[in-house]
Description:
Structural class: alpha/beta
Number of domains: 2
Strand content: 25-35%
Amino acid sequence: MMLKITDLNVHYGFIHALKGIDMEVNEGEIVTLIGSNGAGKSTTLGAISGLVKASKGKIEFEGENITNLPAYKVVSKKISLSPEGREVFPALSVEENLRLGAFTRSDKAEINQSFERVYDLFPRLKERIKQPAGTLSGGEQQMLAIGRALMSRPKLLLLDEPSMGLAPNLVLMIFDLIESINKQGTTILLIEQNANMALSVAHRAYVLETGKISLSGDAKELMNDPRVKSAYLGEIHET
C-alpha cells in the first residue's frame, strides 16, 4: 500500500473540518475523492502535502509516518500537489515555472528528461516555453500546474480540481492526460467537482460528506449507486 490515512482529523480554529477519515491508495491506482463544496476534500490533500496541520490521526506513505511533515520534506518523499486554482507564478515563464517544480532535484540530465516528459504530455507548453505563465489561457495554466507537479518525479500525484473553470473539450483533454500519466506509472489521488468524469477514470473512490467518509468502493460501482447518482451525478436518463 502506498498511502494509508488513519483517523485523520483537522481543525481550523473551532471548525472540525475532517472528522476521523480513513483512506488507502495502492500503487498504480487512480483514487478519487468526491463530495460537495466544503466537504473537506482540499483539506485532505492539504494534510497529506504538509500544508494543513492534522490535529489527530496518522498519514503513512510507503510505510513511513509523514503526519505533519513540512511541505518541502513531503515533496522530497515523492509526493507532489497540483493545487486548486492552478497557482502558477504569472510573471515567470512556462520554463521557469516548470523548473521550480524540480527544486528538490539536482541531476541536470534527469531534470531535462522530466522537461521532455512534460512537453510530450503537453505539447502546447513547449510552444509557449518563454511565455509568461500569466498570459496563458486557463487550460494552458492547468497543464502548467500539472506539469510543474510532475517535475519532481512524484510517485504520488495529488490533483486538486484539475477541471475547474475549463471548457468541456478541455475537461476531456485533461482527463485523458490524467489517464496517460497514470499509465506511465504515477499513482494519482484526484479531487474533482465533476464526479462523473472523476469516477469514469478512477479505479476506486471515496465520498466525503461534511468531513466524514460516507461511501467507498470500486469507482464504476459507485457510479451506479443511487445515493451517488442523486447527490453528485444529477438525473441519469436511460436512453
